TrEMBL record:
It comes from the Eukaryota. Its cofactor is pyridoxal 5'-phosphate. It comes from Adineta steineri. The modification N6-(pyridoxal phosphate)lysine is found at residue 353. Belongs to the group II decarboxylase family. GO terms for molecular function: carboxy-lyase activity; pyridoxal phosphate binding. This is Uncharacterized protein. One of its GO terms (biological process) is carboxylic acid metabolic process. InterPro entries: Aromatic_deC (IPR010977), PyrdxlP-dep_de-COase (IPR002129), PyrdxlP-dep_Trfase (IPR015424), PyrdxlP-dep_Trfase_major (IPR015421). Keywords: Decarboxylase, Lyase, Pyridoxal phosphate.
Length: 548
């Protein structure tokens, strides 16, 4: 009977986790009730007839049944968050009192009941996330995640593996992912190396560091000496992570040569060739070309095959930034966009974008793994390979990148690919590109006031309003109007776009990477957009006419 009563009280405490509190007074009442429940449960656990681990001195629960119940409730909350995602706003501002609960709390000196911590997560964290799990989150190229990814991360946290090296399942899974990606992008079987990282930003650092090592073979010992000025070439549409990588590696932002783009936002090949020649004539040392496989601003692709030919002819490293666009290789209708990607010396891309793995997980592939090894390998007495035991294998990831402490990122990728397969994932990519065209068709109904940036070649749509009531030469007003309209939409909770600057003009940007989006979502967006547009026009006109 005591066990049954204890289970009943534990279930009550777990259910209380889901009670919503709207103010501090309600929170205080909730805490009193929860503490009473916990105290009652604690008193019952003193009974000698109940199996409680009284001698446990670790950080593990002394009452596993109660803790298990709480953990199941948190898992249910996570599943509800995904299953009922459409019932919530895409994004909502964090109320000041909620921020105060989080930000004003001092570091706890004494532990709190697990139920209290879980309640705080459910009430103060989960409702105010960024919103990219929602099907109308289109502000940035951020994947939504999947149930399999959740399970993968949960198991990864359970195992708590440092995936830097040695002989265990995490290493085998990561090697398998690298092999799968090598096959997918048709990199050489014998020589290719790579590893999983937090994302394309650090993958770019690794790639450019390897390119630098190829030219400055003694840079690890001597540093940057003799004033040798290396130069890398990127288009004006390239992501800022390239410049940041150059800065971190001591090469400097001035060593990044920005090459103009054409009407398709692709790098101008002729101007690139001219820039390389002129820099050589100045005594500079060209060492790297960066090609784009889907830019985050417009979804543009450079001519990767032509860039690879230039790189070979000039003896330059050819790096491809394929953060999200590289995975169009899974879409038969658009795979031609990445023709030449197999010729890259290095390729950086993310699984947490168009493959929808939970953040964070990216990848870097390097054509010649010996160069990757020579760039990052170190000798650690406590991390040497042995002929037997748990340190048998010689493919240790910490020799291929800067991190020694590495989470088991590969599991969620492995889980996602095994659960859905490349065919289905490719179909979702194709759907997003088709949805972009559908949105364009809706926007084109308002050609008198909406200016769309063409071409829309992938999944990103940029447009701006130029109201008939406004002076088209009043650029400051138009910039402000479009900026404010973006915020209006975000605050509505209906959708979340972002702003971009294209051809020195502010635009509203829709980046579609949701596997949950449908045509109906874009219909809802357009209805809200036009209502908010009309309201803001009226507000501006009234203000300019002297009304409040």
């Amino acid at each position: 009977m005591e066990s049954e009563k204890l289970n009943e009280l534990t279930e009550q405490a777990s259910a209380k986790l889901h009670e919503h509190v709207l103010d501090i007074e309600s929170l205080n009442q909730w805490k009193i009730q929860m503490f009473n429940l916990i105290n009652t449960i604690g008193d019952m656990k003193l009974s000698p007839s109940l199996p409680i681990e009284k001698e446990n001195t670790s950080l593990d629960p002394t009452d596993w049944p109660s803790a298990r119940c709480m953990a199941h409730q948190m898992l249910d909350s996570s599943l509800d968050y995904i299953q009922y995602v459409r019932d919530r706003p895409v994004w909502r501002a964090v109320p000041y009192d909620v921020r105060a609960v989080i930000e004003d709390e001092p570091i706890p000196k004494q532990g709190q009941p697990l139920a209290t911590v879980c309640h705080d997560v459910i009430n103060y964290v989960m409702p105010y996330a960024r919103g990219n799990a929602h099907p109308r989150f289109w502000g940035w190229v951020s994947g939504e995640g999947t149930l399999g990814g959740i399970i993968g991360d949960m198991v990864s946290a359970t195992l708590n593996v440092n995936a830097c090296a040695s002989t265990h399942s995490a290493a085998f899974v990561e090697r398998t992912i690298i092999d799968w990606m090598r096959n997918l992008f048709n990199f050489p079987e014998e020589s290719t190396g790579g590893l999983l990282v937090s994302g394309t930003s650090i993958a770019t650092v690794i790639s450019i560091a390897t390119a630098r090592q190829r030219v400055l073979v003694n840079v690890r010992e001597d540093g940057l000496v003799n004033g040798q000025q290396l130069v890398a070439y990127v288009s004006t549409e390239s992501h800022g992570c390239v410049v940041k990588a150059m800065e971190l590696l001591g090469l400097g932002s001035k060593a990044v040569h920005l090459v103009p783009v054409d009407e398709n936002f692709s790098i101008k090949i002729a101007e690139l060739k001219t820039a390389i020649k002129e820099d050589r004539d100045k005594g500079l040392i060209p060492f790297c070309i960066v090609g784009n496989a889907g830019t985050v601003n417009t979804g543009a692709f450079d001519d990767l095959l032509e860039l690879s030919k230039i790189a070979r002819a000039e003896n330059l490293w050819f790096h491809v930034d394929g953060a999200f666009g590289s995975f169009v290789i899974l879409d038969p209708q658009r795979s031609h966009l990445v023709t030449g990607i197999d010729q890259a010396d290095s390729l950086a891309f993310d699984f947490h974008k168009w493959l929808h793995c939970p953040y964070d997980v990216g990848c870097v592939l390097v054509r010649d793994s010996s160069l990757l090894h020579s760039t990052f390998s170190t000798n650690q007495g406590c991390l040497e390979r042995t002929e037997r035991g748990c340190s048998l294998d010689d493919r240790w990831f910490y020799h291929l990148g800067p991190e020694l402490s590495r989470s088991f990122r590969a599991l969620k990728v492995w889980f996602t690919l095994k659960e859905h397969g490349t065919v289905k994932l490719g179909q979702k990519i194709a759907e997003n590109c088709e949805q972009a065209q559908y949105l364009v068709s809706l926007l084109e109904k308002y050609k008198n006031i909406i200016r769309i940036v063409y071409p829309v070649s992938l999944n990103i749509v940029n447009f701006r309003f130029e109201p008939e009531e406004f002076d088209k030469d009043d650029h400051e007003l138009l910039e402000s109007f479009n900026d404010e309209l973006v915020v209006d939409i975000q605050m509505s909770g209906i959708a979340l776009p972002s702003s971009s600057r294209i051809q020195n003009r502010r635009h509203i940007r829709i980046a579609i990477v949701s596997h949950r989006s449908t045509h109906e979502d874009f219909d809802i967006f357009m209805e809200t957009l036009m209502k908010l547009y009309r309201s803001r026009v009226d507000t501006v006109v009234m203000a300019r006419n002297g009304y409040d």
